[in-house]
Amino acid sequence: EATFGTDPADVLAGIGPAIGPCCYDVGQEVIDAWERTGVDPDGVAVIRGPGALRFDLWEANRRCLIGAGVPPDRVEVAEICTRCHADDYFSHRSRVQPEGRFAAVVSLDGGAIDG
Description:
There is one protein chain. By secondary structure, the protein is of the alpha+beta class. It contains two helices and four strands; from the N terminus they run βαββαβ. The protein has helices at residues 28-37, 57-67, and strands at residues 13-15, 46-49, 52-55, 75-77. The longest helix has 11 residues, at 57-67. The protein is globular. The model has no long low-confidence stretch (mean pLDDT 86).
């Protein structure tokens, strides 16, 4: 807010395709780091299964945005797993080649930026 003069309540955020909770196997160190943030006190983004830990990156990012003041109804999640849909999207964890990366697009609307 201080840098760009943006009220988080005015932000519209979209979380695009990314590895989904169905496929994002992680180690305990990832869970420990996430829990230290305090963003998810109920542990919703952590999925514990028999012999496996998975992480819901979509929910983690949604919670971070909400924690920063973005209203929940202004956060859209595509819910497209790039690993499950590796034929359509690059996925670092996919066995489909070629591997690739994504880019983010951010837009500021409503006036010039001073400085």
